[in-house]
UniProtKB/TrEMBL annotation:
GO cellular component, one term: membrane
Phylogenetic classification of the source organism: Eukaryota, Viridiplantae, Streptophyta, Embryophyta, Tracheophyta
GO MF terms, alphabetically ordered: transmembrane transporter activity
Residue intervals passing through the bilayer: 12-30, 42-62, 82-105
Protein name (Swiss-Prot/TrEMBL): WAT1-related protein
Keyword line: Membrane, Transmembrane, Transmembrane helix
Highest taxon above the source species: Eukaryota
Amino acid sequence: MARRYCYNDVAPLIAMVTAVCTNVGVNILFKEATSKGMNQYIFITYSYVVAALVLLPLSFIFPRFLAQICAYKGIAYSSPTLASAISNLGPAFTFILAVLFRFLLTLKLKKMENRFECST
């Protein structure tokens, strides 16, 4: 029972926190490297080499090269703090688009083993 709880509830949370912390760390590393004269395209190349060595299969499934170029160019014009804050606004933008397109979720807030149920 405890193992099932860990896989269903804790593992996705740990994966999400790890991904966000890695993203913030790379943003800070990028800002420091470019402020000392490193070209942004070289940094992206290095990050893809590391990603290919660590996560080779996933780098071919999710191509995000253009998105990273735009994100790093934005960091070069502003700060890693702003980039991290903007990346955390994704759920807010999703909610605003859902309201605009009238795609709202109805929440059934009944208590069922300390979990909330959501239906469309």
